[in-house]
Every structure is written in C-alpha cells, then in structure tokens.
Amino acid sequence: MAKKVEHFSTYSIGSEENNEFPFSKIVADHLNTRHQEFILSNNDIMRGIIEAIFYNEIFDGLSAEIQSGLFNLYRLDAGKSSAMVTGYGADLIFGGVLDHTCSAERVNQLLWEQIYRTRWTGEFSNFGALHYGIKIKHPFWNLKLISYCLNLDPSLKLARGEVKVFVRDHLHSQQLLPDAITWRKKIGIHEGSSKNKIFAQLIGVDTANYEAKSLFSYELYKRFLTGSPIPESLMTSDFRQLVA
C-alpha cells in the first residue's frame, strides 16, 4: 500500500517507559514512508483510555487499554489526515494472540472465541475516529478473510514455536520486510509501549489484573451512561476509587 499511495505516513507511539521506535523505523525506511514517532505521557495514555470508553462505549479493560494508542493518534493527527489504515484484527485471524503451548486442536476454536468477543468490546467502532474527523479502516477485518482464515490448517498459524507462521513465511519468501522484522518475537501493541503497565499503575493494581481494569472501565462507562462526567473533566480524578 505504501508503494502505491502518494504521501503515505506511518506512526509509532511509545511511552516514557518503553517504545518500539527502532523497529518501526526499520519498517518505515524499508517502505519509504513519512514516519513520525510520538512519546505519550501517562496522562495521554489515561486520556486515551477514557476516550475509548466514552466514544466507543468500551467497558472491557484490555480493549480500552489497547484502544488508548489509537485515540492518541486520532487526536495527534486530527486536521492533518482524513483517513487512517490499521492492521487491527490481524492477530485474531492469523494467530498472533496464540500461546506457544496451544494444541493444534484448539487453535481455530480459540481464535473464533476471540473474534466472537469483538461483537461486544467496541474495538471496531468508528465513533472515536469520526469525532476527530478521521475515517478509520481495518482492512484485515473483512468477513470473507475472517471466514477463510478460520478454516485454515492450524499449522499455518502456530508451528516451530512461532505464531502467524504463514504470514511470516510469505513475508520472508517475498522479501516484503527485512528478516529482523519478519521473525521478531510477537508482543502486543499495549505491551510494546507499556500502556498495560501504566494503566495498572494509575489505578493501583497489578499489570495483569484485567478484572480490575475491566471494573474501572465498566464503572466509568456506567457514569457516562448517566450523562456525567465528560472525559475532559476526569483528568484530575482519583482513578483508584473506581476499583476500590
């Protein structure tokens, strides 16, 4: 796509704790895009979480945490771009979310369960992007592609200790990306920027406590349903009280 679209821009976000800038730069240089890197403050990350809950009606902690990055990009790019394209959803259909210990018999069932979950998580809602005047596209989230991938042999998704196997093999055989990127260990977008750790710190829980993160999201969601408060009024709040 970058080779066919004029003035194609790419973005990478990080936090004051962590980022994946060296790897994103390798990709940007390879594709010759106009690349920008943004460091998000803890307040930026929490604002993104709050806006995800408000605009996309998300009440799931993991989804709000992941969406925080997108909402910050919407805000940073508002008025500069009219459209954005993401790779969101690719991990669900190609197996990027799988654990290496998953049995072959469970691969497609587990992926279907994760895909089905998106029916209520609000992850693919476009209200937040539209609020910032951006048309958001997730090309991988296509019903025909989802159906096709769910029926692929599990060994194409998990094998040799690798996830997204047939995607990596294709990238390597066609030299579409440098091998340093193609064979890099898969980590979540919320992990590479430490949004998962920062969200937990701000509400006073352990990083892996997604029950508490979802409780926070749900309590905030319920407040929004009553019409108060709006996101901007929350930035000085004591977030810990919502999971007490």
From TrEMBL:
Its GO biological process annotations read: asparagine biosynthetic process
Q: Which SUPFAM superfamilies match?
A: Adenine nucleotide alpha hydrolases-like
- Domain Asparagine synthetase, by residue range, is 6-109, 133-199
Pfam families associated with the record: Asn_synthase
GO molecular function (one): asparagine synthase (glutamine-hydrolyzing) activity
Task: Say which domain of life the source belongs to.
Answer: Bacteria
Keywords, sorted A to Z: ATP-binding, Ligase, Nucleotide-binding
| Gene Ontology CC | cytosol
State which Enzyme Commission number(s) the record gives.
6.3.3.6
Q: Name it.
A: Carbapenam-3-carboxylate synthase
